[in-house]
Description:
The chain has 106 residues and is an alpha+beta fold.
Amino acid sequence: MSTDCIQIVTTTASADEARRIGAALVEERLAACVQIVGPIESIYRWQGKVETATEWQCWIKTRSQHYDAVEAVIRRLHSYEVPEILAVPIIAGSEAYLKWLSQETH
């Protein structure tokens, strides 16, 4: 079954920031669902140094046609200079769930 659905992942500095981003995306019908996971620990290189941070991860369920708008909302509400914004294709899923996802993001 072919699908135009994607998951977009981003991480945030706080649970409140994750909730603000998630709520905006669902309210604007750019995402059917945003799952917030955390806290998680991230280890990364930033400006030449290895850093660690406690973060919250957002899994955003949407359709590929909404990627640009979702990215714009994340950039507008995000506190990071360079936020993680990655899209992962959903290649298959339950027919009922994918239908719901598509209906909620029209």
